[in-house]
Amino acid sequence: MLSYTLRRLMYMVITLWIIVTLTFFLMKLLPGDPFGDAITKLPPESMQLLIKQYGLDRPVWEQYLTYMGHVIQGDLGVSYQFPTRSVVSVIKTAIPASFELGVWSLIIAIVFGLILGTIAALKHNKAGDYTASIIALIGVSIPSFVIGPLLSYYVGVKLKWLPPGLWTGPEHRILPAIALSLGTIAILTRMMRASMLEVMHQDYIKTAKSKGLSKSNIVGKHMIRNAILPVITILGPIAVNVLTGTLVVERIFSVPGLGNQFVLSVYSNDYTMIVGLTLFYAAVLIIAMFLTDIAYNLIDPRIRLGKGK
Amino acid sequence: MKLKKIFTSALAVTLIGASLAACGSKGSDDASGSPSASSGASASASAGGNGKKELVMNYRADPPALDVSIAESAASFTFLGAISEGLYRLDKDMKPTPALAADMPTISPDHLTYTIKLRDGITWSDGTPVTANDFVYSFQRTLDPRTKATYAFVVAWIKGGEAIMKAEGDAAIEEAKKNLGAKAIDDKTLEITLDHPVPFFTSMLAFLNFYPQKKDFVEPLGDKNGADADKVIGAGPFKLTKWDHEQTLVLEKNEKYWDAANVKLDKVTVNIVKDTNTGLNLYETGATDYADIRGDQMDAYKDKPDLRIKSELVTGYVNFQTKKVPAFANAKVRQAFSMAIDREGLVNTAMRNGSVAATGYVPNGNSDGNGGEFRKVVGDLIPPFDAAKAKQLLEDGLKESGTTLPSKLTIIGDDTEINKKIMEFVTQQWQTNLGVTVEANPMPHKNRLEKELSKQYELVNTLWGADYNDPMTWLDMYVAGGPFNTQDWEGPKNEEYTKLVTAAQTETDLAKRSQMLQDAEKILIGEAAVAPLYFRSSPFVVNPKLKGLILPPYGQDFELKWAYFE
Amino acid sequence: MEAISKEKFQPAKKTTSAEAIVRPSLNYWVDAWRRLRKNKLAMLGLTVLVILTLLAIFAPMFSSHDYATQHLKETNLKPNSTYWFGTDDFGRDMWTRVWWGTRISLFIGLVAAALDLVVGVLYGSISAYFGGKVDSFMQRFIEIIYSIPYLLIAILLIMVLGSGITSIILAYAITGWVTMARLVRGQMLVLKEQEYVLAARTLGAGPWRIISKHLIPNVLSVVVVQITFVVPTAIFVESFLSFIGLGIKPPLASLGNLLSDGAGVLRYQPHRLLFPTAVFSLILLSFNLLGDGLRDALDPKMRR
């Protein structure tokens, strides 16, 4: 188990390194310069200082090496748009909101996803299945940038049930969390349904049935428990879903999080910020997948890296 | 040499203006739509007026560092204007009134030396006194190339400023600072000597670039000055007590402010809201007292007291690149393109945000540099829309110059919704009225600016914003060989124009100077060297109970000092 | 002892019919289709898709308007007899724009799926076929791509390439094939070890027969199901890119930019959001329903 974990860790590091490299060079290919209008506004003397400060006067490979060196030390550079704030500090201030939003949306998604998935499987090919599937599918059928404004306007302004935006009190969490959770609900429902259907045909369920166990007992103790197991494997994709969802939802509901920041950085060609955020997103994702792997491994020792499969 | 210096300074300022104007446009243009008085959602703006002491506002973006020297955007202007103050503050008529200064400046007969007495009892928000040295330090810091201040050029109007900016090496910079034409005669008296006469300099002293800075506060912070709430200090009506980046700024009344008695608000909460729909949603649920809106949202508020339309010192216009398209070197061809656009139709059907059809290049409300309003003095210079005459002009012009138009022209411009609409509109006008096919190519603001400045265009739909209230901010752009003469306007008419503008730059007789600039604009428009389209306005919804909130036409987004609730 | 006459040893009358397969032989796909037809939701999805595709192709022809012409005097009209879906803020006909947008979006989805299919199946098969070091290396590569949030990469790519249909398809395809490759490889690896493959081999079937008769059909089912998920995902990505301003350039319409425009004006012109959203959701819903149905239908274990 230990050697397995170590190997996985090594892959993680290599993956991260490749991502840093890729993003760095992609950014170098981008048109437009990061100082934008400043390049023509600033006196040449100051411009020189600025270019030196960001190391833009040196060859690309040298910039790359310096950058790598800094990344290893946990320094992602200084944001071009906010010269007084480091990328790390911007990310740090933006994490809590995004994290909280993500957690809330996950909670909503897990509760509804598992319930809908279970119902769909139990009522396989009956009205219940159809209803549950369609409810879940709404999440993947309407983009969050449509759901978000709809919720903000109808629930926020028309019904006045919840605030239409901002991130001040607990009541401000609900609408964005719902908007963000819809996609995840869909993934979870579908996964849970498939997994339940699989489990329902297993021999041990037949055994349980022939033993005369009550239906609720079978469903609760045998089916759901076993069916949840594979659902853990999609934690990775779910993390992606939540992360990218924040790009849209945060802007619409004025949530001061990472997604909001990312879109802003794209608009303003803030290279260091884009690279930093991409790296951060990727790291979160890789770690999420790593943890999933380890967790799954602990639960199901049949799957081991490099063996069998 | 001197001319060049003056030119570069003006150059810097106006370019910033362009970016400021563009900033402003982002906030209000980035979603599509135009009006339809459907569901007419009624505003139930903030409950209970009776002298509310707390104001809540939306703002479109987190401001960059609130540092007097490096500030360059409307956002910094706005917030620093509330937190701190200059020698003067502009009132609702944009007239400078004494602020940290006790009285209006004493100006020497050659218009070069300004002597200013500071008000008694002025302090920073921490209680320490503001002295004349704080101003001198501020100017020196802004001019220091190591500060990398975008607006250093403006402060370089002070004698010896240019030398500091050009100095190389720490020792040389410190040495140059000693020769700056800004001196503290004593703690209460500041003397500023200019490099050349600047007729609107007293107004400039109200601007952020001339605010004081507290050396022993700024110095230890280094790069971090102005980055957070505890790293900002001012001598203005409010204190910044909280700054959660990308979320909220909280301004609270500064009890130590010299005019605290006239500051009625106790607290101003500014929430960063990037989406105008969400912004309006917040306004309609009473969660904010101020929101910027778009043209289509404006329609539903047409007859409501909430709607405020701010006319800005911003002109939208089209430029014709005369080297890329030789036909554009002919004035008649340009006149034809200008005359073929129905400007009233543009502002009333395509834009619908309160903007008005341009009647010249210098927008409504801009001063003439001699106490009057430029537009009123000069009048309407744009020939009326006339499709038939325009077509005739085009034929004549092409015949006269022996050129032809390419089968397809391209116009570039910003990709904001409003600019896309403008381009769609004008290209259709040229198609139907002149029979000329022009394709619109919208692109991000930065790319447009880059292409425009490097003259990589045939036609460009662009805009310009004033940074200071003087016709010079508009008219020095198109002098011969200047970097903003991106259309390469040349020939005897341009020479005449250049002569007028450069003479005006050093003219001390304000009436004569104003006359020169008026004549210059007449040439500019007569030649159709540019085709102004509209003078821009932006719509806002503001709680009707909120009074005294000034929406200045340039510089700041809003002025909070005198705001109060009924 | 009675002599046993030779006559008694007559060979039994040959009845060929005993071994004949009386019921019609059902090959895999016919069988799947039969099962799919029983799935009402999947069939509904399929029908809706066919109708929408036909509308996308033919509907603009029924309108006298085109998607680009502006009628500046007739902006933001509600649906009426001239403009069946109303007009937008340029006075353009929404009916034509919606169906044009559907056309563009479907095109993006289908081309992306085709790219996915080719790259993913090739990559997955090669990886599974060679196994060992090659497989391990190829898997690491996939892992890396997989762990980069695809939308971020799509955004970066479009920033580099400039927006347009081609860049959108490329931006999707560059990361989209990974799931397909993983699925194909996983399936291939499992199938290689299956008893029936072993049985086929023991019975003397050549590798080609094994691959074509046993491996491919089984992988195909996974591929087909995956494609029904790729198409809507690509359409979804396009809409997302439109929202952050990196989508198709106007005046050309895609469902993505119609949606993001519509979402901006839902307060005063709900019709501009309603129609594109309805079509968009129907497409995505139908693909997903069809996909779910196909998965059930093609899963051999579900045969009953």
Mean pLDDT of chain B, rounded to whole units?
86
N-end to C-end Cα span of chain B? 55 Å
Shape of chain A: flat
The CATH topology of the largest domain in chain A turns out to be MetI-like fold
pLDDT under 50 segments of chain A (min length 5)?
A: 36-41, 303-309
Low-pLDDT parts of chain B are: 1-49
The proportion of residues forming helix of chain A, as a percent range, comes to over 70%
The average pLDDT value of chain A, as a whole number, equals 79
Q: CATH class of the largest domain in chain A, anyone? A: Mainly Alpha
For the report, how would you describe the main beta sheet of chain B? Answer: 7 strands, mixed
CATH architect. name of the largest domain in chain A? Orthogonal Bundle
Structural class of chain B: alpha+beta
Please give a structural write-up.
The complex is a heterotrimer of chains A (309), B (566) and C (304). Chain A is mostly helical. Chain A contains 13 helices and no strands. In chain A, helix 1 (2-29) runs antiparallel to helix 13, helix 5 (87-122) packs across helix 11 (235-252) and helix 11 packs across helix 12. In chain B, a hairpin with a 5-residue loop joins strand 4 (106-107) and strand 5 (113-117). The radius of gyration of chain B is 24 Å and the shape is globular. Chain C is built from ten helices and no strands. Chains in contact: A-B, A-C, B-C.
Structure in a nutshell:
Chain A has helices spanning 2-29, 38-41, 44-53, 60-72, 87-122, 127-141, 144-158, 171-200, 203-210, 215-231, 235-252, 258-267, 271-299.
Write out key terms for the chains shown.
heterotrimer; A: 309 residues; mainly alpha; MetI-like fold; 2 domains; 0% strand; flat; disordered C terminus; B: 566 residues; alpha+beta; 4-stranded mixed β-sheet; 34% helix; 18% strand; disordered N terminus
Topology:
The complex is a heterotrimer of chains A (309), B (566) and C (304).
Chain A: H1 2-29, H2 38-41, H3 44-53, H4 60-72, H5 87-122, H6 127-141, H7 144-158, H8 171-200, H9 203-210, H10 215-231, H11 235-252, H12 258-267, H13 271-299
Helix pairs in contact in A: 1-13, 5-6, 5-8, 5-11, 6-8, 7-8, 7-11, 8-10, 8-11, 9-10, 11-12, 11-13, 12-13
Chain B: H1 2-29, E1 54-59, H2 74-83, E2 88-90, E3 96-98, E4 106-107, E5 113-117, H3 132-143, H4 152-155, H5 161-166, H6 170-178, E6 182-186, E7 189-193, H7 201-204, H8 215-221, E8 238-244, E9 248-253, E10 267-272, H9 276-284, E11 290-292, H10 295-299, E12 307-320, H11 331-339, H12 343-351, E13 356-357, H13 374-378, H14 387-401, E14 409-414, H15 417-434, E15 438-443, H16 445-453, E16 459-465, H17 472-475, H18 492-506, H19 510-526, E17 530-542, E18 546-547, E19 564-565
Helix pairs in contact in B: 11-14, 18-19
Chain C: H1 28-38, H2 40-58, H3 94-130, H4 132-147, H5 150-161, H6 165-192, H7 195-202, H8 207-243, H9 255-264, H10 270-298
